[in-house]
Amino acid sequence: MRKIFFLPGAGGSPEFWQPVARLLPNERDKVFFGWPGLGNQPHDPTINSIDDLVRLVEARLDERLDGPVDLVAQSMGGVIAARIALNRPKIVNRLVLAVTSGGASMDRFGASDWRAEYRGQFPQAADWIMESSRSAELPVELIEAPTLLIWGDSDPISPVTVGLHLESRMPNAKLHVVRGGDHGLASNKAEIVAPLIARHLS
Predict the structure, then answer these.
(1) Cβ burial 122-150 (10 Å sphere, 16+ → b, else e)
(2) What is the pLDDT of residues 97-123, one digit of tens each?
(3) pTM tops 0.85
């Protein structure tokens, strides 16, 4: 049975993708990640960077792998998913990246700085996430996995221009823009997002 790994953004909650997952076919094995120390998740002294989160997901891949895996990711989780797709091209079957920076420097697209609002919402979150002002540039043009890019047209944190940029760089990517979608569209517009994902992963 092909697995779906659901990766949240910096909010860190394994519940983020649940509204979408409930609308997807039940025959898939669904694995939900939470990020230790981010959002309201308990801290783990071994997790101090995005690099550590990449290793966390890859360790689960090694534990559970009995076939290809699809990665469904939002925001910061999309950076993790893109890195894993580059590291493990034979394991990652398909990608869904929602409102992420992926391999783009957000400064050039006029993205708003989310950190002050994030700290106000999650005062106990690990300090290292506040120091991550820029996403690492990634060679996303090397990602061969078919990729669905989902953006909202009302998201100041990751504007549609970022999605268009990634679509132009990734050889097997297709962008879908959700009208009225904001940075949380993967959760709060699940009734729109889930059918897109179901078709892409079928």
Answers:
(1) beebbeebeeeeebeebebeebebbbbbb
(2) 999 987 677 878 888 889 999 999 999
(3) yes
